[in-house]
Amino acid sequence: GAVVSQHPSWVICKSGTSVKIECRSLDFQATTMFWYRQFPKQSLMLMATSNEGSKATYEQGVEKDKFLINHASLTLSTLTVTSAHPEDSSFYICSASQTSGETQYFGPGTRLLVL
Amino acid sequence: GDSVTQMEGPVTLSEEAFLTINCTYTATGYPSLFWYVQYPGEGLQLLLKATKADDKGSNKGFEATYRKETTSFHLEKGSVQVSDSAVYFCALNPYSGAGSYQLTFGKGTKLSVIP
After folding, report:
1. Residue in A with minimal Cα distance to B101
2. What is residue A68's predicted lDDT score, i.e. its pLDDT?
3. Which end of chain A is least crowded, N or C, by CB within 10 Å?
4. Cβ count within 10 A of residue B18
5. What's the rounded mean pLDDT across residues B37-60?
6. Largest Cα–Cα distance in chain B?
7. Which residue has the higher pLDDT, A103 or B51?
8. Residue B94 has what pLDDT?
9. Ordered mean pLDDT values, 10 residues apiece, chain A (115 residues)
10. Cα B58 to chain center, whole Å?
11. Distances from the Cα of B86 to the Cαs of A54, B12, B72, B101, B113, in angstroms?
């Protein structure tokens, strides 16, 4: 149980375009979802925390207008990288927590390459 | 603020060797502690966790004991396998009860096991 999926797993896009990444909890309801960014050989950097039905809370230094997060249901959150640039190339990972628990379950990640 | 410090990697071991990856933390209150594992090209998987002092988390031959007196949560395995090669992340959640799920991660320790 507690499976989280992400789609797509790989995306290559041109500079200036927008990319949407989906995060789904497949077998549980996730009140809270998290979005992380991971640079090569580094730890995860929390970008934002989203609760179903409310606006996401962004970490300091993360541009909310550039990284749009929507958590429309208890099983789906989306991250849209708007007007992507090469410096946005990274590994984006989401995680989800069940309503009554504290353990975060992670998705497999989405590798974004902006040309 | 809360922080997690892991031993610097990479760590290279021969198959069947004993593994220890040190992790210490700084937190106010009584955090929950976690070890996550990341295999190449994948997202994070929860390896084990402990929610209160003196608890021992265990999974797949790995163990870690929550030591409040030394603020440590060292990961150990008696006999590593090539398939254990991965990056290991220590993490804490500052509150042990439901209501706050934000994780603070260590920088990760890369383990390579050679036949």
Report:
1. A102
2. 95
3. N
4. 10
5. 91
6. 44
7. B51
8. 79
9. 90 96 93 89 87 87 94 92 95 86 84 95
10. 11
11. 36, 11, 21, 25, 9
Torsion, Cα of A18, A91, B4, B7 (10° steps): -160
Looking at chain A, the whole-number percentage of residues with pLDDT higher than 90 is 66
Query: What local confidence, expressed as pLDDT, does residue B23 receive?
Result: 97
List the 39-98 stretch of A: residues with Cβ below 8 A of B. Answer: 41-44, 46, 49, 93, 95, 97
Tell me how far apart the alpha carbons of residues A74 and A51 are, in angstroms, rounded to a whole number.
9
Say yes or no for a CB contact (<8 Å) between B32 and A102: yes
Q: What is the Cα gyration radius of chain B?
A: 14
pLDDT at B93: 86
| Percent of all residues in chain B with a pLDDT value above 70, rounded to a whole number | 94
Q: How many CA atoms lie within 13 A of A63 on its CB side?
A: 8
Among B42, B49, B105, beta carbon nearest to A43: B105
Min Cα distance B65 → chain A (Å) is 17
Contacts of A109 in chain B (CB under 8 A): 41-43
